[in-house]
Amino acid sequence: QVQLVESGGGLVQAGGSLRLSCAASGRTFSSYAMGWFRQAPGKEREFVAGISRRGSSIYYADSVKGRFTISRDNAKNTVNLQMNSLKPEDTAIYYCAARTMVLVTTLSYDYWGQGTQVTVSS
């Protein structure tokens, strides 16, 4: 089992940047594919970015390609999401998630963090 804690959210102006981090407990972090998801008010939770267990595969939602970068450090049990050129439509609660099997872009992840709020003002 793994526990996930997100940090780094906040309020930023459009065009600005934020870096989200997700710290995972446990000694088997490298056995999990990791994903970032977001949920805006009144909308369904959606996939943002994902990275495979060793970082060899990375997926992005079309809406964030070229602006967001996901990375992981298995030695530090962390996964990060660097968000640049932020837009008001990026406003949402961002969640970190872990999956014991291969990387996917659906919501079928085994463990979820509590989320961190990102607000982008226009």
Notes on the structure:
- 0% of the residues lie in helices and 48% in strands.
- The strands form 2 sheets. Strands 2, 4, 5, 6, 9, 10 and 11 form a 7-stranded mixed sheet that branches. A 4-stranded antiparallel sheet has the order 1-3-8-7, with no helix packed on it.
- The protein is globular and about 40 Å long.
- It has 122 residues and is mostly beta strands.
- The model has no long low-confidence stretch (mean pLDDT 96).
- It has no helices and 11 strands.
- The chain has strands spanning 4-7, 10-13, 18-24, 33-39, 46-51, 58-60, 68-73, 78-83, 92-99, 111-112, 116-121.
How would you summarize what this structure contains?
This protein is mostly beta strands and 122 residues long.
Helix share bin: under 10%
Beta-strand content estimate: over 45%
Number of distinct helices:
0
Distance between the termini: 40 Å
Rg, please? Answer: 13 Å
**Which regions have little confidence, pLDDT < 50, spanning 5+ residues?**
none
- Residue-averaged pLDDT: 96
